[in-house]
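Section 3.1: Structural characterization of target chains.
Under the original work plan, the team committed to producing a structural model for every single-chain target entering the pipeline before any wet-lab resources were allocated. The record below documents one such target. The sequence was received from the expression subgroup and is listed exactly as submitted; it comprises 240 residues.
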Amino acid sequence: MPDALTLRGVLAGYGETVVLHGVSLALSQGETMSILGRNGVGKTTLLASVLGHTTLHAGEIAFAGRPLAGLRAFRRARLGIGYVPQEREIFPSLDVEENLTVAARRQRRDGWTVDRVYALFPRLAERRRSMGNQLSGGEQQMLAVGRALMLNPSLLLLDEPLEGLAPVMVDRLLDALVRLRSEAALTMLLVEQHARLALEFSPRAVVLDRGRIVYDDASGPLLQDPQRLASLIGVSKAAV
């Protein structure tokens, strides 16, 4: 079985500006990985490159063994790549249920439905007739995850889903992601600034610095060595 996601020697960025420098990694089917690093080191650019939103100058990106070069973003989504953007980008003039159904693909027998999303996020069921702009930040984040699931992805990319959330919402969202990992067997790539939470959630971590991978290994050693973690992602390093 091919890896869920493979990057080989990726040089990518925006126009002529290169942000990622020779990034290589492989994510197995059903694996969860966190991407860590300071602001501006290329974490979001890595996700954007998988989605087809950057210029690929060199290297290869493959999804389930299929090269993605030349495929537009909407075709990558149809292959099974789901995305939860940092800005959430829900439709403010649609209610919760409309935000979910507008994203729905043709249903598989085991696919995601509105009721299944409500089972994962009971709070959304309570707010199903509330407009997008009437939701709290945590509720909007739940809706963004639910909307991505309605595309029936096998790979889910999450860009800083915990940012700006109240602690109780962080706990609820992490509980839901743990359920997705265990029950739905989703492959997940998580970009997150909350390093300790991300490391506790994912068994494997990648740390980026200036567009290059400086750590790709188990999360445990970084959790057990705060000094090393700080040296890898600390703000004392020179800004990119």
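The first helix runs from residue 43 to 51.
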